[in-house]
Amino acid sequence: MYKIRELKRTDIPAINALAENEGNIHLHQKEQPISDNTFDNIFAGNAERLYVIEESSAVRAFILFELNKESKQIYIHKLTVGTSYVKKGLDEHLYSKVERLAERNGYEQMLAEITTSSSIVHTFFEEKGWYRLNGSDTFYKAVL
Length: 144
What we know:
By secondary structure, the chain is α+β, with helices and mostly antiparallel strands. It is built from 4 helices and 7 strands.
C-alpha cells in the first residue's frame, strides 16, 4: 500500500539515493542530490516543500517544489520516481497533491524546467496541459 506524506528527516538518505540514481525517472537529464540547505529550508517551513510516496516504509518517489506567494506560482524543482515504480501512478499522486494545494491556495501557475529526454516525463506533463514557454525546449507551464 502506498502512502503520500511530507518529508521526515529520516527520509534524507533515501531521497538523495533516488535523486542520484540515473536509472530512475527524473525531470532533469543529470539529477543532483538535494542540498542540506534545501532540507533545512523545508524543515523550517519556508517556501520549499517535499512530498514522498512510501511503500513498506521505503521511499519510492518524491516531488520537491517551491511556493511563491507574491507571484502566485509553484515551481517544481524535482519529480523522481524509482524505476521499479514507473507506470504505477506515483507521479500522478504526487502531481495531483501539489495541484490541489495550488488550487486551494489560489496559485495561478505551475512551472518546471524539464531537461530530460525521457518521453515518459514529457508525455506526462503534456497530457496535463503543460506547454513550452516561448518556444523553449525545457520550460513548461500550466495555468490553473
